[in-house]
Specification:
By secondary structure, the protein is mainly beta. It has 1 helix and 30 strands. Strands 16, 18, 19, 21, 26, 27, 28 and 30 form an 8-stranded antiparallel β-sheet that branches. The longest helix has 4 residues.
Length: 447
């Protein structure tokens, strides 16, 4: 925590999506650790503002199935567990205290992945940040969209820092209006028991001296019949479950040789889109794929060799060398969200046909502080996190050249997850004429 300058005794965590120097973990959805027992969400502290305007209660808290469609205010697909009795104009009731009593229950039995919610009316907050779009004091959505980090989740430890299995400390900072927030995350604090993250935790870029996220493909490797490729974690599924074509990948002179098929990621029939898992929730990262030149084999429209990042074949960003009409080859930035794909930018790069190496680069960060100047910030969104991706390329190890503009995915906790995916592919782009590209290196680094 830090002391808010000029305001004695007010402590804040700040608005960043994850405090990377702390024990905080990004967990948008949980599973019951033991499905035969209930999950327990028990409040241990309540320190929000006085609420004497209601006769029934406030601070509603509950859970919802990951597959449910929820809205604000919370719809019937949200299950309410408990709330707090109203305060009086003269005194707090179950407020400004430890171990507050609630109206309702603290246990539930989910059948699958579930999220948590807390709040009333237009200020309902979710553990999944993608649902926490910021609103102004009048309740209108702020543009550009900001997805607030309104819950913080920490693994629980006992005396001597002994891990307590399947137990979490969860804190919230109420309201979806940045100008009303103080980011202290103690408005309500719960202990969540018998719960485990739906997703695991992949390596954090830069966390190891010899990073498992850095692959020297030129030293060779193997490709199994099920597309288990040395160094990579898997192949991105496509819509027809034909994503694996092991016969079109082999290690040879210079690195991993990949031969195209007609499918492509934008059409959801891409084959051999290899990926590496990494934790994208804890700061800036750079994905780099090196392709050996010359790249003089792209002769049919939409043939491409690419690096990509994203959660699935409906949501991704690509940077690619591509044949596309006259003055080919081109460098292209392509962005898809919720199945809608857009060519963000394209530039003719004749040097590709004679280059020695081409580096395909994707940079991402879920914690980019909003740069709005304080003097022109009526909604107080300055420094609130923006999740961003951008792309560039380098020829023969030279200076990076940006392609396109920054894109801000809306489903921030899926894109920038603890099991994020980035990788490489080649595509015939509907062409049945095959070509082969050689990747010599692939890495995900910090910063």
């Amino acid at each position: 925590t830090k002391v808010n300058p000029g305001t004695p005794d007010v402590r804040e965590f700040g608005p960043a999506r994850t405090n990377i120097s702390s024990d905080e973990r990004q967990v948008p959805y949980f599973l019951a650790a033991d499905a035969t027992k209930p999950v327990v969400l028990a409040p241990v502290a309540h320190y929000s503002a006085r609420n004497a305007t209601t006769t029934t209660g406030y601070g509603r808290t509950g859970w919802y199935a990951k597959t449910a469609t929820v809205a604000t205010p919370c719809t019937s697909t949200c299950t309410q567990l408990h709330m707090y009795p109203p305060d009086t104009s003269a005194a707090y009731v179950e407020q400004q205290k430890l171990m507050p009593a609630v109206t309702g229950t603290t246990s539930f039995t989910p059948s699958g992945a579930f999220g948590l919610w807390n709040g009333d009316f237009s200020s309902v907050n979710y553990v999944d940040d993608a649902k926490n779009y910021a609103i102004n004091a009048s309740g209108a959505t702020i543009a550009p969209p900001h997805y607030l980090h309104s819950f913080r989740v920490y693994q629980a430890y006992g005396p001597g820092r002994v891990l307590i299995p399947n137990t979490w400390i969860v804190g919230t900072d109420i309201t979806r209006t940045p100008s009303f927030k103080n980011n202290d995350f103690q408005d309500v604090v719960w202990v969540l028991r018998n719960a485990k993250p739906e997703l695991g935790f992949a390596p954090v870029p830069g966390s190891n001296i010899e990073s498992p996220l850095s692959l020297n493909l030129s030293v060779g490797g193997t490709v199994s019949p099920t597309c288990q490729v040395t160094g990579f974690d898997g192949v991105l599924p496509n819509s027809s479950a034909t994503q694996c074509n092991a016969a079109n990948m082999q290690f040879g002179a210079g690195g991993l040789q990949m031969t195209s098929t007609a499918g492509q990621l934008a059409n959801r029939n891409q084959q051999n889109a290899l990926y590496k898992n990494f934790d994208a929730s804890r700061g800036a990262f750079t994905v780099t794929a090196r392709v050996l030149g010359p790249i003089d084999y792209l002769n049919n429209d939409y043939q491409q060799v690419a690096a990509w990042f994203g959660p699935d074949d409906r949501n991704f960003v690509k940077v690619e060398a591509e044949h596309n009409g006259a003055n080919s080859p081109h460098m292209t930035m392509f962005f898809a969200e919720n199945g809608v794909g857009t060519t963000v930018a394209m530039a003719s790069v004749p040097a590709l046909t004679s280059c020695t190496t081409l580096d395909l680069v994707i940079q991402g960060n879920t914690n980019v502080p909003d740069p709005t100047p304080a003097a022109s910030d009526p909604n107080k969104v300055r420094n609130y996190p923006l999740g961003e991706v951008k792309v560039s390329y380098r020829i023969n190890g030279g200076a990076p050249v940006a392609i396109g503009t920054v894109r801000r995915p809306a489903d921030v906790m899926r894109w920038f997850s603890t099991m994020a995916q980035a990788g490489i592919l080649v595509s015939g782009g509907n062409s049945t004429v095959p070509f082969t590209s050689t990747f010599s290196n692939f890495s995900v680094t910090a910063g």
